[in-house]
Automatic annotation (TrEMBL):
Pathway field: Carbohydrate metabolism; tricarboxylic acid cycle; isocitrate from oxaloacetate: step 1/2
UniProt entry keywords in alphabetical sequence: Acyltransferase, Transferase, Tricarboxylic acid cycle
Gene label: citZ
Top-level taxon in the UniProt lineage: Bacteria
Entry-linked InterPro entries: 2-MeCitrate/Citrate_synth_II, Citrate_synth-like_lrg_a-sub, Citrate_synth-like_sm_a-sub, Citrate_synthase, Citrate_synthase_AS, Citrate_synthase_bac-typ, Citrate_synthase_sf
Protein name from the UniProt record: Citrate synthase
Naturally occurring in which organism (per UniProt): Anoxybacteroides rupiense
Catalytic activity: oxaloacetate + acetyl-CoA + H2O = citrate + CoA + H(+)
MF terms in GO: citrate synthase activity
Length: 372
């Protein structure tokens, strides 16, 4: 047996959803740079689920379906109110709420393709409502009902704040959603596929995926980046902070990647957005600190920034609470998880690798009375 730690380089499935080849990311063959500049998140959702860009009519239909399904059961709101709310991380609340949502879906265990697609629509439609409702309830505010006339990105920001967002905020948020939508066989997507490959249901797969995304080596890194920037505080503090961390063999969050070697193609879009937004809100130091960290990492390790690095300052400038950064990642990645879950069901085989045993051999059972 050959053990590949962390499954590095192991090709575990075929997939027609997204690819990373020579540091280029594509969704269904469309370069992420092209999509980031031109596509809306709803178009990307359609692309990932149908493997083609929608016509105007198909896009309208998807938007309508998402709007019609955005309301969440009142039981979820009531459940949030029972939590020890000041201690609960929103990713834990989201993980629990998605699992709970499955209890109120009469089709949760119906496994045919049409029912699974309907559940995909419902999950994608409801996740913004769940995240924003939790955010408001923990602040003692009432949740804001979704507005069917707003697009996906605008509606999220509207439900979060209770007021209609400006065009710059919607554009930035929509682009961030496009950039986070899918990423081949990342840890959370793999988790979702492993889960549903047992022929378990979509809600179980998404709940498992949220659990995997939560960790700071994966989606949780965006919140950790903001924590680091806050701790550093000024551009002058960057050099000693980073050098000390590296000397202690600690990781700088938002850097490095299992697959990319030259760099994450999504980072440059978020970097541009960070430069623009930090200036716009009169807080250019977040961008300046980030650039300085990037320069130091480049000249010492060298490791390039990943998607989580500049997204932190972007979300901060949009006025989003730092512990909502990873749930927002989940709002976008829901589209990719669902595409992969549906693809897994279409051509399923149980995912069950092996482990090389390293424990003791040939032990003989000793009765408890003789064990001291
Ligand atoms: C959306 C996403 O999930 S993107 C990733 C988000 N995660 C982060 O930003 C967390 C910080 N980054 C990391 O922890 C890693 O780079 C990962 C998890 C992304 C990739 O991990 P792996 O491919 O397993 O690389 P691994 O952790 O083995 O690192 C290889 C070497 O680079 C170093 N390294 C990797 N990332 C970093 C970092 N961010 N800061 C400092 N050193 C790093 C490791 O210490 C290790 O050094 P060594 O060989 O001297 O021991
Ligand atoms: O692919 C990965 O390992 C992590 C990542 O960048 C993502 O999920 O977007």
């Amino acid at each position: 047996m050959t053990v590949t730690r962390g499954l590095e380089g192991v090709v575990a499935t075929t997939s027609s959803i997204s690819s990373i080849i020579d540091d280029t990311l594509t969704y269904v063959g469309y370069d992420i740079d092209d999509l980031a500049e031109n596509a809306t998140f709803e178009e990307v959702v359609y692309l990932l689920w149908h493997r083609e860009l929608p016509t105007r009519q198909q896009l309208e239909e998807l938007r309508k379906q998402l709007a019609e399904n955005a309301t969440i059961p009142s039981e979820i709101i009531e459940h949030f109110k029972l939590y020890p709310i000041e201690k609960v991380h929103p990713m834990a609340a989201l993980r629990t709420a998605i699992s709970l949502l499955g209890l109120y879906d009469e089709e949760a265990d119906i496994m045919d393709a049409e029912a699974n697609y309907r559940k995909a629509i419902r999950l994608q439609a409801k996740i913004p409502t769940i995240v924003t409702a939790f955010s408001r309830i923990r602040k003692g505010l009432d949740p804001v009902a979704p507005r069917p006339d707003l697009g996906f990105a605008a509606n999220f920001l509207y439900m979060l704040t209770g007021s209609e967002p400006n065009e710059t905020a919607v554009e930035a948020f929509d682009k961030a959603l496009v950039l986070h939508a899918d990423h081949e066989l990342n840890a959370s997507t793999f988790t979702a596929r492993v889960c549903v490959a047992t022929l378990s249901d979509i809600y179980s797969g998404i709940t498992a995926a949220i659990g995997a995304l939560k960790g700071p080596l994966h989606g949780g890194a965006n919140e950790a980046v903001m924590k680091m920037l806050t701790e550093i505080g000024t551009v002058e503090n960057v050099e000693p902070y980073v050098q000390k961390k590296l000397a202690n063999k600690e990781k700088i969050m938002g850097f490095g990647h299992r697959v990319y070697r030259k760099g994450d193609p999504r980072a440059k879009h978020l970097k541009k957005m960070s430069e623009k937004l930090t200036k716009l809100v009169g807080q250019p130091h977040w961008y300046e600190m980030s650039v300085k960290i990037e320069e130091i990492m480049n000249s010492t390790k060298p490791l390039p920034p990943n998607v989580d690095f500049y997204s932190a300052s972007v979300y901060h400038c949009l006025g989003i609470d730092h512990d909502l950064f990873t749930p927002i990642f989940a709002v976008s990645r829901m589209s990719g998880w669902l595409a992969h879950i549906l693809e897994q069901y279409e051509n399923n085989r149980l995912i069950r690798p092996r482990a090389e045993y390293t424990g003791p051999a040939k032990q003989v059972y000793v009765p408890i009375e003789q064990r001291g």
